[in-house]
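Collaboration report, partner site 2.

Our partner group contributed sequences for two proteins of shared interest, and the home lab folded both. The records are reproduced in the order in which they were received, starting with the first partner submission.
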Amino acid sequence: MNNSWNKVIYKIGSPIYDKFFNSGIFLNARKQILQSIPFSEEQKILFVGVGTGADLELINYSDLDITAIDYSPDMLGRAIKKFKDSTINFLEMDAQNMVFEDESFDYVVASLILSVVPDANKCFQEISRVLKNEGKIVIFDKFAPKNKKLPLSKVLIRPIISVLGTDIGRSFEEIMPKNNKNLIIEEDSSVMMNGMYRKIVITKIH
């Protein structure tokens, strides 16, 4: 996967993205996660890889200070149209190289982004960098099973799926630095598909 190819994939997929990810089990999972986050007006919130803005539809965005980024202009364009009357700050930006200053946000929401960026480790480092002390990262994504080998069936189809712009074999345990004592996992729970999709909440401490 690379950024140029991802732009092509999401240009093709942007018209049907909401039909897939804004319905059924994906919608229920995202509702469960997003509506449990105690956002407040005084906080600065970043949505990384906001796509068409489907996640924003599930929260009371009008009362919040939200910045939302995406690398795909086609996906971002659809989000901007949906929320043209809002105060959300939409920016076309690479999640692996964000322009924000260190410790800029109280919350960073990373929904289905770590499995699609070319370099998940770099993306996670950037997410951690722009998070304030005492801030929280909320992740919803698919990962390889914890402390287990990827099943042979997934090993075989992983290269094919990657061509479609997503990786089904990434390990979160390899993405989050083991020696970083400033990041504490508060929650790591199965959300759907027998634990393939997880909700992970991380707090940054001094």
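Second partner submission, folded after the first:
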Amino acid sequence: MNGGDREAGRTARPKRADARRNEGVLLDAAAAVFVASGVEAPIRDIAAKAGVGTATIYRHFPTRADLIIAVYRHQVEALAEAGPALLAAGPTPYAALARWIDLFVDFLVTKHGLAAVLQSDDACFDPLHAYFLERLVPVCTRLLDAAAGAGEIRPDLDAYELMRGVGGLCAGAGNNPRYDARRLVGMLVAGLRRTE
């Protein structure tokens, strides 16, 4: 067995907790820089925000596309994990849903900086939309079901439709400083309440 065969036979070891934490710090820094300066921001800006050298970023993410995909997936995972945590800790299912939608708005605003790249012709970005739906629609569905089960919202709500509505409200701002997507989304979420 040559060295390549031995490598192929090994299973990937999970990252240590400190390595996962460090990667999370790096991805959070990259997301913040992308929002402020766009996805073409210099890698040195991301490195400075994360408190690491540029070589560390290139070691983890050899290309800018690798970094963009990792940031997107990191944010989707954080949002997916937030749903059950909010439901467990929230005072009511509706409160958990409202807080999750608020986090979803944050995600969409952050993602807006990535939108042009994600909609590019680069095939490496194609699976991200399906990944987004696969991870987040079930979380939103669970929150809606819990709030409906508690009698706090109407029972006929669809997670995909709600998420599309929130996305549409967030995308509508353009460059209009008077457009407050968060306020509009808040009105949408308030409108989910069950009326007697």
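Feedback sent to the partner group on the second submission included the following. The mean pLDDT is 83. The chain has ten helices and no strands.
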